[in-house]
Amino acid sequence: QVQLVESGGGLVQAGGSLRLSCAASGRTFSNYAMTWLRQAPGKEREFVATISRFGGNTYYADSVKGRFTISRDNAKNTVYLQMLSLKPEDTAVYYCKATANGHDYWGQGTQVTVSS
Q1: Judging by DSSP bridges, how do beta strands 78-83 and 18-25 pair with one another?
Q2: CA distance 28 to 3
Q3: 20 to 30 A from 31, CA-CA: which of 3, 94, 96, 102?
Q4: Which residues contact 102 (CB under 8 A, 6 or more apart)?
């Protein structure tokens, strides 16, 4: 089992940037594909970005493509989400998820609030 802790959220003005981190512990980090998702108030959780085990493949939701970048450092057991040109509609709780062998593990989330 892997434990995940997100950090880096906060309040930022529209057009600003944030970098989220998700630190993993407990198992070999490179065993897991990593995904960022978010959930805005009153809305369902939605996919943001995902990265393969060694970072060779990344995929993004259309809504963040060109503004967000997912990356990982397997030596530091950490996945990142660099968010640029933030918009008020990016306001949400951001979660990281680790997936391996059909099992998902979730962090507790970090709040991102973008003011207009």
Answers
A1: antiparallel
A2: 11
A3: 94
A4: none
